[in-house]
Write a structure and sequence with these properties.
There is one protein chain. The strands form four sheets. The protein has a five-stranded parallel sheet. A five-stranded parallel sheet has the order 7-8-11-6-12. A two-stranded antiparallel sheet has the order 9-10. It is of the alpha/beta class. The protein has 19 helices and 14 strands. 32% of the residues are buried. It starts with 5 loop residues before the first strand and ends in a 6-residue tail after the last helix. The protein folds into four domains: 107 residues, Rossmann fold (3-Layer(aba) Sandwich), CATH 3.40.50.2300; 189 residues, P-loop containing nucleotide triphosphate hydrolases (Rossmann fold); 84 residues, Helicase, Ruva Protein, domain 3; 46 residues, Arc Repressor Mutant, subunit A.
C-alpha cells in the first residue's frame, strides 16, 4: 500500500478497538479511535477520516442500533461522502436496511472475519477514490457546459431539446461527430437531464484500454484473480451503477473487446475477473465516436449487433464550421477560462480578432479553438487579443491545423507558470496540474532553471 489511508473506529469497548487497531495497522492503515458517536463528531471536526468502522450499539440495555443510526443521520447532514461500515453483534433486517438507506456500505457482524473485513475496507476505499475522481471529472465537464458552452446556433438548440427529451428515458444514446466537436460536454448534459444527476457519470476512453486488461477495467477483479491482482478492483460498470456510463471512442475497440461488451449489454449481467458472482448492470449507456460506423461495419471492423445495442437513439453533432453562431461565444468562454488559469483577467477580443475567428473554418473544432485562444492569452501583452495573436489562416485545409510544436508549447507553459508563481516550483506544478516531480523532469528536459 503506497498511501496510508485513515480509518476511524467508533466502538465503546476498548478491547474491540485495540483488536481492530492491531489488525488495521498491520495492513498499513492510519487509525484513530472514539468510544461513542459524540466523541467521534469532535474528532472529525479536527480531521476527517477516509473510512469509518461504526459500532451500532453503545448503551448496555439496548440492541436496537439507534445510537449508530443517529450517527449516520448526523453524518448525512454534514454532506460528507465518507464510507461507513457498520459493525454489530446484534443485527436485524430492519436495522441493516435503515443503515443502508442512510449511506452505510455493507455490514459486518461481530465477531468478524479478518480477511473479509480487510477485503471490504480495500473495496470501499477504492470505490470512494474512484467516485472522487469521477466527481472531479463531472464537475470539470459541468463547469465547461454551465459556465461557457452556451450553444446559440439553431442546430444546437434543436439538438439540446431532443437530447433533454430522450435523456429522461433509459434509452442508450450514440453521439457521432468529428473530434473536438463537444461530445463529452453533451454526455454531461444528457446525464444532468436524466433525472439522476447526483448519481455517477463514469467516462471511459475505450481505445485506451489494453486488450489484456479490458475485463478487469470494465468489470473489475477480485484479489488474487491474476498475478498482479494484489487488491480487489471495482469495474467501470459497477462504478456507474444507477448512473451513466460514457463510452468514448467506441470505434477503437478490438473485435474481441466488442464481443465482451456486447454480452453485458445483451444480458445486463457480468462477473468480475476471478469471481463466480453474477452482478447486474443498470447503468445508462452513452457512447461516442468520430468514426463512420456504417463503413466500419461493412469493412468488418465493427459488430453490427453491438451497433444496434448502442444506437437506440443516434445524434450527429455538426462541426463548428457549420454552426458559426457558436464561434464568438465559445471564444469568449475560453478567453475567460484561460485568462483565469494564467491570471490574465479582463482580456477582450478586438473586432479584427472576431472577424478572424469567424472567417476561419476550424478543422479541429472546439478543441482547436481552446488551444488557439490559450496560445493567444499566453502571448498577448496588451490586454486586447487581436487577429495577430490568434494567427489563424482563413481557408486553411483540415490537414494543416495551426499549432505550434508540442515541445515549444510546453516550454512556454512552464516558463509562464514559473513566472506567475515567482519561481515556486510546487505552486507552478499545481497551476499546470502536474506533480512536482513531473515538473522537475520537464524543466530538466528543456534545461529550464528557476531563473
Amino acid at each position: 500500500m503506497d498511501v496510508m489511508h485513515s480509518i476511524l473506529i467508533i466502538d465503546d469497548r476498548a478491547d474491540v478497538r485495540a483488536s481492530l487497531r492491531f489488525l488495521l495497522e498491520q495492513h498499513q492503515y492510519q487509525v484513530s479511535e472514539a468510544d461513542n458517536p459524540f466523541a467521534a463528531q469532535s474528532t472529525m471536526k479536527q480531521q476527517l477520516p477516509e473510512l469509518i468502522l461504526l459500532d451500532m450499539n453503545y448503551s448496555l440495555d439496548t440492541v436496537s442500533g439507534q445510537e449508530g443510526i443517529g450517527f449516520l443521520e448526523w453524518l448525512q447532514q454534514q454532506e460528507h461522502s465518507i464510507p461507513v461500515i457498520p459493525m454489530t453483534a446484534w443485527s436485524n433486517t430492519a436495522l441493516v436496511v435503515k443503515a443502508m438507506q442512510l449511506g452505510a456500505r455493507d455490514f459486518i457482524e461481530k465477531p468478524w472475519n479478518n480477511a473479509q473485513l480487510i477485503n471490504l475496507i480495500e473495496r470501499q476505499l477504492e470505490l470512494s477514490a474512484l467516485n472522487q475522481q469521477n466527481n472531479k471529472l463531472t464537475q470539470q465537464l459541468e463547469a465547461s457546459h454551465q459556465s461557457g458552452y452556451q450553444w446559440q446556433s439553431p442546430v444546437m438548440q434543436t439538438l439540446l431539446t431532443q437530447l433533454a427529451t430522450v435523456a429522461q428515458t433509459n434509452a442508450n444514446i450514440l453521439l457521432t461527430g468529428p473530434n473536438g466537436c463537444g461530445k463529452s460536454e453533451l454526455a454531461v448534459f444528457i446525464h444532468q437531464q436524466s433525472g439522476k444527476p447526483l448519481s455517477s457519470l463514469v467516462q471511459v476512453n475505450m481505445g485506451a484500454i489494453v486488450e489484456s486488461l479490458f475485463e478487469s477495467e470494465m468489470f473489475g477483479h477480485v484479489k488474487g484473480a491474476f498475478t498482479d491482482a494484489k487488491q480487489q478492483r471495482i469495474g467501470r460498470f459497477e462504478l456507474a451503477e444507477n448512473g451513466s456510463l460514457f463510452l468514448d471512442e467506441i470505434a477503437n475497440m478490438t473485435l474481441s473487446q466488442q464481443a465482451k461488451l456486447l454480452r453485458v449489454l445483451e444480458s445486463g449481467q457480468y462477473e468480475s475477473v476471478g469471481s463466480n458472482q453474477t452482478k447486474r448492470s443498470n447503468a445508462r449507456i452513452i457512447s461516442a465516436t468520430n468514426c463512420d460506423l456504417a463503413r466500419a461495419i461493412s469493412e468488418g471492423q465493427f459488430r453490427q449487433d453491438l451497433f444496434y445495442r448502442l444506437n437506440t437513439m443516434t445524434f450527429a453533432i455538426p462541426p463548428l464550421s457549420e454552426r458559426t453562431e457558436d464561434i464568438v461565444p465559445l471564444a469568449q468562454y475560453f478567453i475567460k477560462t484561460h485568462g483565469q488559469k494564467y491570471q490574465r483577467a479582463d482580456l477582450q477580443l478586438t473586432e479584427a480578432a472576431i472577424q478572424s475567428l469567424q472567417n476561419y473554418n476550424w478543422p479541429g473544432n472546439i478543441r482547436e479553438m481552446s488551444h488557439s485562444i490559450e496560445r493567444a492569452v499566453l502571448l498577448n501583452t496588451s490586454g486586447m487579443i487581436d487577429a495577430t495573436d490568434l494567427a489563424l489562416v482563413p481557408d486553411q485545409s483540415s490537414n494543416a491545423i495551426n499549432v505550434m510544436p508540442l515541445d515549444q508549447a510546453e516550454q512556454m507553459l512552464i516558463r509562464n507558470a514559473l513566472k506567475q508563481t515567482g519561481n515556486n516550483v510546487a505552486e507552478a506544478a499545481e497551476l499546470l496540474d502536474l506533480s512536482t516531480s513531473a515538473l522537475y523532469r520537464r524543466m530538466e528536459k528543456y534545461a529550464l532553471g528557476k531563473s
